[in-house]
Amino acid sequence: MKHSIALVTGTTSGLGHAAARMLAAKGYREVIVTGRSLARAQETSAELATETKTPVFTPLGLDLDSPSSVQSALAELVKQVRPVDFLLLNAGMVGGKKRVVTAEGIEAAQAPLIGHHRLTIGLLRANLLSPNARIVIAGAEPARGDVPMFSYTDLATLAAKQFHGDRSAAVEALVRNGPNVKYEPNRAYADAKLIVAWWAAALARRLPSGMAVYAVSPGSAPDTKAVRNLGPVMKSLMIPLTKLIPGMSQTPETAARRYLQASEFGTDVSGQFFASAPKKLTGPIEAMRHPHFHDRANQEAAWKAVVKVSGVDLSPASLSAVS
Ligand SMILES: NC(=O)c1ccc[n+]([C@@H]2O[C@H](COP(=O)([O-])OP(=O)(O)OC[C@H]3O[C@@H](n4cnc5c(N)ncnc54)[C@H](OP(=O)(O)O)[C@@H]3O)[C@@H](O)[C@H]2O)c1
Questions:
Q1: For 50-84, what is the HEC assignment?
Q2: Is the pLDDT of residue 52 over 60?
Q3: Candidates 13, 40, 216, 280: which one to mutate for ligand 1, based on the most atoms within 8 Å of Cβ?
Q4: Which residue in 26, 27, 154, 284 is a FRET match for 103, CA 20 to 30 A apart?
């Protein structure tokens, strides 16, 4: 693919910042970099220009927790009229001990997906993704259920017990962290990234034929700000220990490289979730085969819930407009 325009969310620190830098080095003509406010995005864009000695960065204010901020960002992109070749939906967060919900009542670790959905569908509707665009959304290994201290919610069981078998209502309850969902930060994060993987699978079925979407875990990279909400024991003991154990961590650059690698995958693997090999947190990525990622009923339930919570759908009319 000719390297042209990339849009990376969450570039003010960590993997988004590293990915933006690497995209410039790879020869992208323009890299649109987002921060929660235009001022933060402008600072980041200036830092990146200095670090890379290239003037390819365009700042864009984008707070994924705020529907009006996503709308303004879309309006700005429509004004610029330059179709995006690589959409990197990297922004995300791990919640802390205290349950946080956005003004719309969405659990904080789930909120980036709702904002990313609004952004992606807005770009598709405005014909602002190029015909062979690649979309990568940040997943994470905890969604597999084989990372110590992290487990995900069994959707069918939650739906059967609390929502008369309605899986989409159960996903909505996870996204809102209620009703009938107890807040546990690690579980909320694993559930958020599981729903990300299901969303990518469902979106893949709805994209025009030349485009593709993948969920990609960058793997364990503790030298970012992702750990900011963790408790003091995790921060001062567990994370430093993790860094000492071979195979438990990698640099932000190695982690961000996975996103760039996936941007060159074909349409044949669209919708899949790529992560470290099972039970591993670093190393080469592969498509995850765990049955819970491939449950079509759960994928469609996730899509339906995200559409309902965001209020934004990809109608057949908008699909034909972009194909
Ligand atoms: N680091 C790891 O070990 C690891 C492992 C697996 C997956 N991941 C995933 O990789 C992605 C990047 O994480 P990171 O490690 O680079 O963490 P980070 O240093 O905390 O960076 C996260 C970025 O996302 C932004 N962000 C978060 N929520 C947002 C929202 N609602 N609206 C707008 N921007 C938002 C942050 O902006 P603010 O600073 O303004 O909040 C920041 O720019 C995340 O999706 C994370 O879940 C990380």
A1: HHHCCCCEEEEECCCCCHHHHHHHHHHHHHHCCCE
A2: yes
A3: 13
A4: 154
